[in-house]
User: Fold this.
Amino acid sequence: MTQSAPLSALKRLLDDPSPVVRKAVFDGVKAAGTEGVLWLENLTTNRKLGVHAKSLLTQLRTSESATQIFLQYIEGGKIELEKACLLLERAINPPLSENDYADKLDRFAERTRELMAEPADVKTKCHLLCRVLFGEEGFRGAQQSFATPEASLLSKVLHSKRGIPLSLCLIFLLVAQRLGLPVEPVGLPGRFMVGVFKGKEPFYIDCYEGGTFRTRA
Assistant:
């Protein structure tokens, strides 16, 4: 995206601590509309200015700009599951922070590591992850609110611990990635699950049914 002259000038002021200057930067980016928000999004990875850009984005991000960022991301090639989920949800909930996902997922992974006693095979580790998610944390299928957005959006499911098969499987997958487990998504007739297909005995995990293990038979 080509920067307009006003935005280019504001970049030099983005880390200025003066409240007067910060308000001027806020007003300038806001006046630029979607172009201004996209400009800030591109600055979030800047080592010096990223934290300031993120701070402004929590106040200025819109559904329109979030949708554009998501579309740019999925059209750009390599896709990271967690980032794609975050960017998609921001189209509905623009102020959503990375920490709304990462902190809880990191905690679930760390707790699972605490329970692991090496050497352990993949199936044993998956059982431990199920113990954490569906036992200790109490994640379950959303029986009464299946069709509501709250059962689909990851930030909501991480809070309520009730979700549809897809959202619960996404949480399982994202924690499994942190643990280096070879878990894959599986779309089966009538139910979305996760599975492990490395080793002599492939297996599925039904996250909607509290982490029930299933075989191909």
The chain has two domains: 5-90, 99-214. DSSP finds ten helices and six strands in the chain. The beta strands are 140-141, 162-163, 184-188, 191-196, 203-206, 212-214. The longest strand covers residues 191-196.
